Known about the structure:
Layout: E1 2-9, E2 14-21, H1 26-34, E3 46-49, E4 72-77
Parallel strand pairs: 1-4
Antiparallel strand pairs: 1-2, 3-4
Amino acid sequence: MRVYLFGFAGEDFVGRVIVTPDERTVAQLAGRLVAWGLAPERGGSFTVRNEASDILDPAATIAQAGLGNGDIFTVERR
């Protein structure tokens, strides 16, 4: 099922509405958001948090991570 999520990337401060299948992983979701940032070529790992500031497992699907329509997530570079 497709879900729409509100994503924010910390240091680049990018805010986007993303519509994506919920079977994608949290890592894929983070990569998609960071690709729109000011320095997408910067490598490194990310921490993804939900609205409650819980760290999400990058290997989990969006559905497994508990993200659903209208939820907010934040991506931070480590």
